[in-house]
């Protein structure tokens, strides 16, 4: 009898009995691959390694003292204070973004603290890892390397050597004999991750899985693992740009939405302690179309430059382009500018860009986007010592935003003298001294006070 099969979306793990061109769940195209249906393993994940009888909530011990700080400040922020012993962490990101580099640097820090780390690579040989380690200045007795892809062998080695941390680079190269499909397929990746989960919980080893994100869905994406693991970190950035953001999107032991900022240098990843300064370096001063704003990344304020170019349309239909922010939001702001600020943008192309390759969809960006476009259109500058933030509503009203005090403190720290903020936030902002604060209530008012 032919084996029973099903079709699985490599991006999100959605299952169907028939092949589909487009995944109804995540919307990606041509990601369905045929996989054999395996006998159901009834107890998977953490449940398989934990007790079977219910316990009273108030008798459960919460000793998360087993946290290990990595002493890489930016990483510790994102993890909420370090790796928890016996946890399973997923580090996802595009190929070549720097995941292996970061993990090797983590190895070094842990090694210096006297911890043992087992680094398993399914992609590189021990020699290749050694070469990279030399470049990063990583060495040490307690750093064990293993070039292996068989999950059972890796688990047996880990149980024998009892490392404090096990790193799997990458989970998409791992395979289990008992699973029929190829390495990198949804079933293989999911089953391997389940085994590592059992190892983490059962033997109290912190396990870090590396997962590649592939746009074409040729490999099972880290999304199919998000529900299994304790913590999900994504490493983002443009490969040709230097800065990298490490973002936590799930954390069972801390807050999410924290970001760490790194810079890729010739000798590995360096922490960027002051991202605002980094983002603003090299900006043009006193030119139309450039506006500084302050956004929040988790609990961290960050100053960035918003740029715009508005030019007469050569073809009938004007082009609008948004790089690093929400396209539809920009279209909406253009409509508001036409209606409420009497700017005739109907015959003009409008481009907006967040400098430095940042990707931000926070609504407090609205005011800066609108002013940048208006400034590019009119040719009037925003004074270079001014920072603008606030949300814009459809009737042209300016709405308040959160964490105003933190934002203004950051603005002050970077030497700016003036900020334009929503009137609703004025009371909160008054607590910050030595700052010239202008508050606005409508887009019209915003246009009047922001440009000279
Ligand atoms: P890598 O960690 O191999 O990426 P991943 O594991 O996410 O696929 O990093 C790859 C890139 O980083 C590579 O193109 C070279 C660059 N790089 C540096 O610029 N400096 C360095 O010190 C190292 C080790 C890598
Ligand atoms: Mg790698």
Question: Could you please describe the fold and organization of this structure?
Answer:
By secondary structure, the protein is α/β, with parallel strands linked by helices. It folds into 3 domains: 5-36; 67-273, 3-Layer(aba) Sandwich (Rossmann fold), CATH 3.40.50.300; 278-450, Ribosomal Protein S5, domain 2 (2-Layer Sandwich). Helix content is 27%, strand content 26%. The chain contains 12 helices and 23 strands. It has helices at residues 45-49, 73-79, 99-112, 126-136, 151-161, 186-203, 275-280, 327-340, 366-378, 404-413, 426-429, 443-450; strands at residues 5-9, 15-16, 32-36, 67-68, 83-84, 88-93, 117-121, 143-147, 165-169, 206-212, 231-236, 243-251, 259-265, 268-271, 290-297, 300-312, 320-323, 348-354, 386-388, 391-392, 398-399, 418-422, 436-440. Strands 8-7-9-10-6-11-12-13-14 form a 9-stranded mixed sheet, sandwiched between helices. It has a 4-stranded mixed sheet with strand order 15-16-18-17. α11 links the parallel β22 (418-422) and β23 (436-440). α8 (327-340) crosses α9 (366-378). The radius of gyration is 25 Å and the shape is globular. The structure holds thymidine-5'-diphosphate (TYD) and magnesium ion. Thymidine-5'-diphosphate is lined by residues 93, 95-101, 132, 135-136, 264, 266-268.
């Amino acid at each position: 009898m032919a084996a029973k099969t099903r079709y699985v979306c490599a991006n999100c793990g959605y299952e169907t009995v028939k092949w589909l061109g487009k995944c109804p769940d995540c919307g990606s195209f041509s990601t369905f691959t045929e996989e054999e249906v395996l006998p159901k393993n009834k107890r998977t994940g953490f449940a398989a390694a934990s007790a079977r009888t219910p316990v009273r909530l108030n008798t459960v011990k919460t000793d998360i003292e087993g946290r290990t700080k990595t002493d890489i400040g930016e990483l510790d922020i994102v993890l909420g204070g370090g790796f928890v012993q016996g946890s399973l962490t997923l580090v996802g990101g595009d190929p070549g973004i720097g995941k292996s580099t970061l993990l090797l640097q983590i190895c070094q820090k842990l090694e210096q603290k006297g911890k043992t780390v087992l680094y398993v690579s399914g992609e590189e040989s021990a020699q290749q890892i050694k070469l990279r380690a030399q470049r990063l200045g990583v060495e040490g007795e307690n750093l064990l390397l293993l070039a292996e892809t068989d999950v059972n062998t890796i688990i047996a080695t880990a149980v024998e050597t009892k490392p404090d941390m096990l790193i799997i680079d990458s989970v998409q190269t791992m395979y289990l004999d008992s699973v029929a499909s190829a390495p990198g397929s949804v079933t293989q990746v999911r089953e391997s991750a389940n085994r590592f989960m059992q190892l983490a919980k059962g033997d109290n080893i912190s396990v870090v899985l590396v997962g590649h994100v592939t746009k074409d869905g040729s490999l099972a994406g880290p999304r199919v693992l998000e529900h299994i693991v304790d913590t999900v970190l994504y490493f983002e950035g443009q490969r040709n740009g230097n800065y990298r953001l490490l973002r936590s999107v799930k954390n069972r032991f801390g807050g999410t939405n924290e970001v760490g900022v790194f810079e890729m240098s010739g000798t590995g990843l360096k922490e960027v302690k002051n991202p605002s300064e980094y983002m603003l370096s090299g900006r043009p001063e006193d030119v139309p179309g450039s506006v500084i704003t302050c956004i929040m990344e988790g609990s961290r304020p960050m100053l960035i430059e918003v740029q715009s170019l508005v030019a007469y349309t050569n073809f009938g239909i004007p082009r609008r382009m948004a790089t690093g922010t929400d396209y539809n939001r920009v279209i909406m702001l253009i409509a508001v500018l036409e209606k409420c600020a009497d700017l005739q943008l109907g015959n003009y192309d409008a481009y907006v860009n967040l400098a430095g390759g940042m990707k931000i969809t926070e609504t407090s960006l609205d005011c800066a986007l609108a002013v940048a476009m208006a400034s590019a259109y009119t040719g009037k500058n925003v004074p270079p010592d001014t920072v603008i933030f606030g949300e814009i509503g459809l009737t042209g009203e300016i709405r308040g935003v959160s964490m105003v005090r933190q934002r203004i403190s950051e603005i002050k720290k970077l030497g700016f003298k003036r900020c334009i903020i929503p009137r609703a936030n004025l009371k909160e902002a008054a607590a910050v001294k030595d700052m010239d604060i202008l508050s606005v209530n409508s887009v019209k008012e915003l246009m009047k006070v922001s440009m000279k």
